[in-house]
Design goal:
This protein is an alpha/beta fold. It has three helices and seven strands; from the N terminus they run βαβαβββββα. It has a single domain, classed as Rossmann fold (3-Layer(aba) Sandwich), CATH 3.40.50.300. It has a seven-stranded mixed sheet with strand order 1-7-6-2-5-4-3. Helix 1 crosses helix 2. The longest helix has 12 residues. It binds adenosine-5'-triphosphate and magnesium ion. The site of adenosine-5'-triphosphate has 17 residues, from helix 1 and helix 2.
Length: 149
């Protein structure tokens, strides 16, 4: 089952991230799919703040993956926009490091994504309005969506 939500502000998107964070578990994977400026990094910032991460979250554009360890659980933030060769990056290692992985531009690593994960598609409606479609794959993610949405 898919879940559809409307976000009317950056704060709404952060609130969704906080709600999902409250149901976190080790090795959780969230894929954020949406055009440039749709709010993917905003979501990651909301999630990181809820984890208690005190560092500033910036898009890992050139290093592709950033690791934050100051929160309740490690956070691995991937931005695959500039990925040239998936074989050069130890992407799948991160899915077993007992942290949460959030991926921007997941289509770049489609073949490497775990079967069980939460996909969030962000559609830009206008300047501040976004439609978010959540699609859980696997029982844990279905339960997660059931309890937060
Ligand atoms: N409802 C909303 N949810 C999230 N962001 C919003 C919303 N309305 C407006 N914004 C604005 O849209 C921008 C989203 O920027 P953000 O960096 O998160 O995009 P992105 O999807 O990560 O882009 P990129 O693909 O370049 O990394 C921010 O300036 C934010 O304030
Ligand atoms: Mg971004």
């Amino acid at each position: 089952m898919d879940y559809k939500l409307t976000s009317f502000s950056e704060e709404d998107t952060k609130e969704l991230a906080e709600n999902i964070e409250s149901e976190k578990f080790p090795n959780m994977v969230i894929c954020l799919d949406g055009e440039l400026g749709s709010g993917k990094t905003v979501f990651v910032k909301g999630f990181a703040a809820a984890l208690g991460i005190d560092e500033n979250i910036t898009s890992p554009t050139f290093n592709l993956i950033k690791e934050y360890n100051s929160g309740e659980m490690p956070l691995f933030h991937m931005d695959m926009y500039r990925l040239t060769d998936p074989n050069n990056v130890e992407i799948t290692d991160y899915f077993n490091k007992q942290g949460v992985t959030i991926i921007e531009w997941p289509e770049m690593i489609e073949d490497y994504l775990p079967a069980e994960r939460l996909d969030i598609k962000i559609k830009v409606v206008n300047e501040n309005k976004r439609v978010l479609i959540l699609k859980p794959y696997g029982e844990k993610y279905e339960k997660l969506c059931d309890s937060v949405l």
